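Progress note, sequence design subtask.
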């Protein structure tokens, strides 16, 4: 474990990670997008990290689901251990050359890996890459991601897409949360012996999936 990036030692023990988006009172009352804040917990509900999204009000209001952001993830001592960077890119199969790509750094300034959206006419598909941009895993979502009254699972698969080794799940949060706020609860299940850098990239993938498929603008409510 002495070779692990600082702050990721705890991920070495986990095969399940819970990501809980904190309820923003202003968003619930006014229906206005605010910067997202998350708690990252183990399967017992104990907080391991917390995360804060950084971007401008302009990005949140006009580019909501495809907005550029930097998410800084810190441990309980306040030390930043993971940085997730998303540039402004397309979110449509009509533009297959400029689809989503996410960079994950750990420690900040050092590449841990990437999440790359793959073109597909029917299914949400992503590739998890290591720091050398070598493909490691695939993520494949369902054809419909509305998830009314049920969880939505994105399967984590081997590169040949034949074997499922884990999943990213968007948990049903209840009527009030889903109608009046964009708060979300996600679970990540991966093999416990998966490289901790790839586990960090999976956290980044979870944030990307949240914004692409589950964070809809509230301005019309």
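Output:
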């Amino acid at each position: 474990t002495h070779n692990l990036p600082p702050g990721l030692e705890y991920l070495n023990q986990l095969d399940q990670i819970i990501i809980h988006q904190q309820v923003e009172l202003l968003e619930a009352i006014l229906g206005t997008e605010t910067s997202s804040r998350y708690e990252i917990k183990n399967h017992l509900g104990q907080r391991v990290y917390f995360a804060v999204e950084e971007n401008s009000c302009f990005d949140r209001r006009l580019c909501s689901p495809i907005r550029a952001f930097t998410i800084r993830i810190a441990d309980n001592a306040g030390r930043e251990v993971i940085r997730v960077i998303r540039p402004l890119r397309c979110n449509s199969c009509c533009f297959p050359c400029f689809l989503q790509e996410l960079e994950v750094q750990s420690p900040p300034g050092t590449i841990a890996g990437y999440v790359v959206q793959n073109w597909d006419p029917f299914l949400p598909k992503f590739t998890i890459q290591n720091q050398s941009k070598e493909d490691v895993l695939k993520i494949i979502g369902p054809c419909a991601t509305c998830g009314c009254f049920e969880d939505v699972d994105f399967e984590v698969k081997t590169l040949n897409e034949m074997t499922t080794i884990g999943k990213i799940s968007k948990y049903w949060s209840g009527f009030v949360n889903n109608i009046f706020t964009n708060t979300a609860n996600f679970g990540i299940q991966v093999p416990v012996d998966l490289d901790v850098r790839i586990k960090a990239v999976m956290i980044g993938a979870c944030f990307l999936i949240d914004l692409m498929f589950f964070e809809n603008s509230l301005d019309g409510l």
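Residues 24-217 form one domain. Work on this subtask will continue into the next period as scheduled.
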